C-alpha cells in the first residue's frame, strides 16, 4: 500500500473521530429527555404540523408493545405505498423516459428491500425506475427506514436508562425527529457538496449524444445527488444507477468518494457517543465505539493491501499490476481508475461493516480473501459500526451476551449498567443471534440444491458458493451489496430474498424492543464487588472477542468452503 | 395494531411530501442556481455540439485516438443505460481468457514486444463500465500509436498527456488518472491528420 493509501485511511479516521465528538452530543439532545434541543425554533413547527396531521400526541409515551406495533404498522403501510408506486409507475408523472410498471415479483422484492433498509436491487435503476419513483418512493424509504433503525436503538437505550418505567418513548416522535433533525440537514449539505463535484441533479430525460467518433451514447439524468447523500447517510445503499457508487455520475472523484464513506460512518459512530451521554457514563459509549472501530479497521487493513497486491492469475498473462509512479496497479477488474484498488478495499469494508451496501467496485471480482472481508463484515451482523441505529443495538446485544458469558465464569447473575440480565432477556438475545444465521444457511443451502437457483450464478466452483452465500448474507443482514454475478431477478430469488430481508429486519427489531421493555421495568442494582465493569478496555476486548467467536463458530465452515478454498486452490 | 394504521398512513404521506418532494426539489433548486453545469451532467461540447460527458467514458476505436479501458456496459461497451461490471471472479476462466486476448491485442495495436508487460487497467473492465480514465502508464504506451496515426512527434503527444493527467486530489486522495475524452479532444484541437 502506498503512503497516499495510508493517508486516505488516516483522513477518514480523523473525520470520523471528529464527527463522533461533534455529532454525538447533538444526537443525545435530539433523543434525550430534556424538553429543549438545539434547533427547536426551526424544527418544532414542522414536527408539530406533522404530529397534528397524523393525530399523534408527542407527549404520550408508549409501552414496548405499542412501540413495536407502531413500527410494524408504519413499515407495512409505507411498504404497500411503495409497492403501489412501483406498479403504477407508468401512469404517474415525472417519467420522461416512459418507464413501465415494475413487474409484481420485482416490485415485492424492491418494496421489501427498501422498507427494510436493505436496498438489494434486482433491477438497473437507469432502465427501470422513473424520477418520481426514485425520489418520491425509494429515497423516502432511505430516510424513514434509517429513522426506524435509530428509533429502535434509542428505545433500547431508554430501556437501559429508565427505572421502573412501563414506557420506552414514542415511535412517531423518534421517527419524525430523526428525519427532520438528523437526516434531512446532513443529507442536504452532503447533496450540495456532491452536486458541486459532478453528481447530477436534474429531471431530464435520458439524453442521447453523438460521440466524438460518431457513435451514439445515452446519458441518463435524474435527481441523483439528493438520493446519493441519503442512501449513504442512512446506510441504505440503493443507487439510482446499476453501477452504484462506482458510476461516475454518482461518485465522480476521490473527494466525493471520501465524503460518501464519511456519510456512511458518521451517524453509527456518533450514536455511540450519544449512547454514553444518555446513560451518563461516557466510558460505556467509548467501549462500544472501540469495539466497532477495531473490527472496521481490521477489515480495512486486510482488504486494502490484498486488492493492491493484485490477482496473480493476471500477472501470469502479462498484465502489469505493480504499483509504480505511472499506475496504481492492483487487482483492477471491476475497479475505477480514480479510486484504485486501495480505494476499493476501504470502501468495501466501510459499506459492509455498516448496513449500507453501496459499492465503488465490483465485490465479485475482488481476490478471494479480499472479497471475504465484506462477506464476514456482514456475517458479524453489521456492527462495525453498523446501520443507523441497528449497529448500536446490534453491538449492545453482543454486550449483553458478553456480560452473560462473563457472569457464567464467576457464577453470578450478569448485570449491564446496573440492570440484571435474566432469563427473559437472554432468551431474546439468543433469538436475536440465531435468527439470521438460520435464515442465511438454510436458504443458501436450499439454493445450492436447486437447479433453477444455480442457473442464476455468474461464476462456478467455490466462487459460485461464495456468490450464493454472499447474496443471502447480504439480504438477511439488510446490507444490499452483492457479488453481482448472481442474477437475482427470478421468482425464487425475488421471493426468498424478500423473506430473508423481512426476517432479518423485524425478527431482530421486535426482540430488541422486548428487551428494552423488560429492562425499563427493572430497578437498577448498585454495583458490588462481583459486578463486571463494562466501561473498561478489558470489556471492549471481551466484547470484540465475543463478536468474533460467536460469529466465527457459526459461519466458519461455509467461509472455509467458499473464499478460503478458492484462495488455496487458485494460487493466490 | 389496527389503531396504528391511520397514523402510519398519515405519517407516510407527510414524510413523503417532506423528504420525497420538498427535499429533492430544494437540492435541485440550489443545484440549478449554483452548480448548473455539473447538475445537468458535465457535458462537453465540440464546435457547440455536445459530444459526451466529461465524467463518462466513451468508445474510441480509431488508432488516432487514445482508447479507454474495456467495458462491460452493454454489448459494445460504454452504454450509458447499462452501467455495470463483468462480475467475473478472480479465477474465472472466462476472465482469464478475455484478459489473455486483450493483452495480445494491446501489444499488437501499440507495437509492443510480444512479452511486454501491459498495464492492468488496459486489460480489465471497470466497476461502472463507464470509467472515463486510464492510467498514465496506459496512456504513455498508446502514445506511439496515436502519434504515428496523426503524424505527430510522440514527444508532442506526451506533452498533451502530461497536461491532461489529473494527479491525486489534495495530494493523497484517489489515484492519478488521464481523462480519455478530454485528452482526445485536446489532440483534435492540436491538429495532425
Textual characterization of the structure:
The complex is a heterodimer of chains A (572) and B (193). Helix content of chain A is 64%, strand content 2%. Chain A is mainly alpha-helical. Chain A has a domain at 26-206 and 217-280. Chain A starts with a helix and ends with a helix. Chain B folds into two domains: 1-40; 48-190, no CATH class. With 193 residues, chain B is mainly alpha-helical. Chain B has a three-stranded antiparallel sheet. In chain B, α5 crosses α6 (154-163). The chains are: A mainly alpha (572), B mainly alpha (193). Chains A and B meet through α1, α2, α3, α6 and α7 of A and α1, α2, β2, α3 and β3 of B. β3 of chain A pairs parallel with β3 of chain B, so a sheet runs across the interface.
Based on CA atoms alone, the radius of gyration of chain A comes out at 23 Å
The 3D shape of chain B can be described as extended
Q: In terms of quaternary structure, what is this? A: heterodimer
- Give the fraction of residues assigned to helices of chain A: 55-70%
Lateral strand order in the biggest sheet of chain A: 1-2
Let me know the number of strands of chain B.
6
Order of helices and strands of chain A: HHHHHHHEEHHHHEHHHEEHHHHH
Number of domains of chain B: 2
Q: How confident overall, as mean pLDDT of chain B?
A: 96
Summed up, the helix count of chain B is 7
In DSSP terms (H or I, runs of 4 or more residues), the helix count of chain A works out at 19
What's the average pLDDT of chain A?
97
Profile the largest sheet of chain B.
3 strands, antiparallel
Helix/strand order of chain B: HHEEHEHEHHEEH
The amount of beta strand of chain A, in percent, is under 5%
Largest sheet of chain A: 2 strands, antiparallel
